[in-house]
Design a protein that fits this description.
Layout lengths: L9 E3 L2 E3 L3 E3 L16 H10 L5 E8 L16 H16 L3 E7 L17 E2 L8 E3 L5 E3 L4 E2 L5 H17 L4 E6 L4 H6 L14 H4 L1 H14 L4 E5 L13 H13 L5 E5 L19 H5 L6 E5 L4 H9 L5 E4 L1 H5 L3 H7 L30
Parallel strand pairs: 3-14, 4-5, 5-10, 6-9, 10-11, 11-12, 12-13, 13-14
Antiparallel strand pairs: 1-2, 7-8
Bound molecules: 2-Phenylacrylic acid.
Length: 371
């Protein structure tokens, strides 16, 4: 059989891709206020980046009010949000593209100003993150010590992932991705530095991965496993995370998820910081997708600082089935065509990543061949 390239088709569960250049989920903090509602500018941003049979994973979207971690981050828990997202999915589908929604609960990576009633963010344990939150007024403030969730509160959070997935399908998404990476709630449960619980959700690896597996099961049951992906960052350090010994934890978690028959596993390589902060390079770290490939029976999307050459290499080496690009997709609305043509790429402007309007969002130029 001929080896696949970045431009070969791929079936990932029920998602039928015509090429393997995936748009990574990108937090841009541009939802309409009040209510964190996706709008027509957001629809235009995604429309520009849609290609026939190309998969877009839309930005981290909170499953509930308490799941919000950033100002103007969109949600998928209100009817207005479902309506707003409908315009986004319609715009992508009109161009023949596919779009999945990333579902997040931020846990401790939030701020009381973003929480209903100004309450403290909740997390598996009352362990504060180093660093700064974004407040509702776009200020930076030290993270607060989160409130530890009661065991009895956890089923409702699992249900909020389930209802968010149902809403995503109502809004026209082709699938959802659970955000289990970069230090948000699912990863807070997974990792021992943030999970000090003594109940069935803490302690052993089996217990720490319980929340992830329950959320994935609930969502798969709700919308069908073939429409569900999971994103993990086994060697990540974003948002003050980092497991001392990640290999046994992530091997077990990936093996358990593999049983569910999900559409894909999305792994972040330890080359990218994941927080939008400056780039990091940790060449001493192992490749997440190469390491976990033998433990996963479905498709793998790999993300983290790829360019055309390294993406092609990862696909042809068989370490990944598709490659997600983030910053390159921010700066190049026509990234897929540019990669296909080997055309030069626009540079990204970090100063317009978060918040604001069209500048740095929908005004990056497409490539023009100058005759
Ligand atoms: C950058 C800024 C804010 C949020 C992640 C959702 O790290 C994010 C995020 C990234 O996954």
């Amino acid at each position: 059989m001929k080896r696949p390239t970045l431009f070969s088709p791929l079936a990932a569960g029920l998602l039928e891709l015509q090429h393997r250049v995936v748009m990574a989920p990108l937090t841009r903090m541009r939802a309409s206020q009040p209510g964190n509602v996706p709008n027509l500018l957001n629809a235009e941003h995604y429309r520009q980046r849609a290609t026939p049979g190309g998969l877009i994973i839309a930005e981290a979207t909170q499953v509930s009010e308490t799941g919000q971690g950033y100002p103007a981050a969109p949600g998928i828990h209100s009817d207005a949000q479902v309506e707003g997202w409908r315009a986004v999915t319609r715009a992508v589908h009109e161009r023949g593209g596919l779009i999945a929604l990333q579902l997040v609960h931020s846990g401790r990576i939030s701020h009381s100003s973003l929480q209903p009633g100004g309450g403290l963010p909740a997390a598996p344990s009352a362990v504060v993150a180093a660093g700064n939150a974004f407040t509702r007024d776009w200020e930076r403030a030290s993270f607060e010590v989160p409130r530890a969730l009661e065991t009895g509160e956890i089923p409702a959070i699992v249900s909020s992932f389930r209802s968010a997935a149902r809403n995503a399908i109502r809004a026209g998404f082709d699938g959802v991705e659970l955000h289990g990476a970069n230090g948000y709630l699912i990863e807070q449960f997974l990792q021992s530095r943030t999970n000090k619980r003594a109940d069935q959700y803490g302690g052993s690896i089996a217990n720490r991965m319980r929340f992830l597996v329950e959320a994935a099961q609930a969502v798969a049951e709700e919308i069908g496993a073939g429409r569900v992906g999971v994103r993990l960052s086994p060697f990540g350090i974003a948002n003050d995370t980092g497991e001392d010994d990640p290999v046994p934890l992530y091997t077990r978690a990936v093996e358990a998820l593999s049983e569910l028959g999900l559409a894909y596993m999305h792994l972040i390589e330890p080359r990218a910081s994941g927080t939008g902060a400056a780039d990091i390079s940790r060449p001493e770290m192992p490749s997440a997708c190469a390491l976990l490939r033998p433990h996963w029976r479905g498709k793998i999307i790999s993300a983290g600082g790829y360019d055309l050459r390294t993406a092609q290499e990862a696909i042809s080496a068989g370490n990944a089935d598709a490659i997600a690009f983030g910053r390159l997709f921010i700066a190049n609305p026509d990234l897929v065509e540019r990669l296909r043509a080997g055309a030069p790429l626009n540079a990204w402007d970090r100063s317009t990543f978060y918040g604001g309007t069209a500048a740095g969002y929908t005004d990056y130029p497409a490539y023009k061949i100058v005759a």
